[in-house]
Prior knowledge:
Blueprint: H1 12-52, H2 57-71, H3 75-85, H4 95-121, H5 124-132, H6 137-167, H7 179-190, H8 194-221
Helix pairs in contact: 1-4, 1-7, 1-8, 2-4, 3-4, 4-6, 5-6, 6-8, 7-8
Amino acid sequence: MIYGYAWDTSSSLAFALSILPILGIGLIVTLEATVAGFAIALVLGLVFALLRRSRLSVIAWPTAAVIEFIRDTPLLVQLFFLYYVLPVYGITLPAFLTGAIALGLQYSAYTSEVYRAGLDAVPRGQWEAAVALNLTRARTYRDIVVPQAIPRIVPALGNYLVSMLKETPVLSVVTVVDMVNLANLIGDRTFEYLVPLSLVGLIFLILTLLCSAGIHRLERALPKSGIAMR
């Protein structure tokens, strides 16, 4: 018995139905970690992209080095560092928060490149028009450049969202109780791994298909010339 649920291994279908409520608990954690990590990646990635485009080499070069370092080191190593090394220096974070930060930090390096490519794709004439109108750099980004870059970056950002969703099982190594962690726990208690792990795989497949469909629909809905900012 786990969480008050009795397992009936005599029937695979009955067994699958009986463990769905438990896997649902892990599903919520998986979705929360994905949303939190993606929000961090979107914000931090934009910061990285803007800093890397700075006219000051003392800002642009260190930012590029940080992005490369994050992108070229494994997520698992970063996760272990945040969870096991930081407490040695007096910084202790909850497992879920550590996982969300690790996901967001890892993918911020990728989203920063997406932002950079989207900003570079805006025609140079738009920048020159902003200079001619004597707009500040901040207003140029806000009112002219970013609205035109958004339709260009949505597909790539959507791909990273799907990738991040599929990366969440790695958080189980720092005791985050996600779907994979619960499926393994169910297998340990019942000696039946096929059904719970198959269900987790099916749930991930459904989630990724829904995310992909939503991204494609958003991509078609956005005007190619850019969105209007108020």
